[in-house]
Write a structure and sequence with these properties.
The chain has about 100 residues and is α+β, with helices and mostly antiparallel strands. The protein has one domain. The termini are close together. The protein contains two helices and five strands, in the order βββααββ. A hairpin with a 7-residue loop joins strand 4 and strand 5.
Length: about 100
């Protein structure tokens, strides 16, 4: 019978703010006065130790099973005659699930 060991890795994701202009052709709800928040993928790749961690886990026999984003809900309240608001999910971190087969 095979036995498996599991491990979890937490990777925080930095955010960047970029201003976009309003476009009626797309579902862009930002009017350019506020910044739109995006996950900074480049900073995730540049974080010290991530590459070394992944390489060493691979050499030790760990297999990446899944990557799950942890989302944070943010909202903006528009004060117009209709008085609507909207919310957007922002990727706050990534949780990596690893698995390793071990002999009992």
């Amino acid at each position: 019978m095979k036995t498996h060991m599991h491990q979890i890795t937490y990777l925080p994701v930095e955010q960047i703010e970029a201003v976009e202009r309003h476009s009626k052709n797309h579902y862009d709800i930002y009017d350019g006065t506020k910044g739109r928040i995006f996950p900074d993928i480049k900073s995730l790749m540049d974080q010290a130790g991530n590459d070394e961690c992944f390489v060493s886990m691979g050499k030790d026999g760990w297999k990446l099973v899944s990557v799950v984003p942890v989302l944070e809900g943010r909202y903006d309240f528009k004060t117009t005659t209709q008085g609507y608001s909207f919310g957007v999910p922002i990727t706050n971190c990534l949780v990596l699930f690893w698995e390793k087969e071990i002999e009992p």
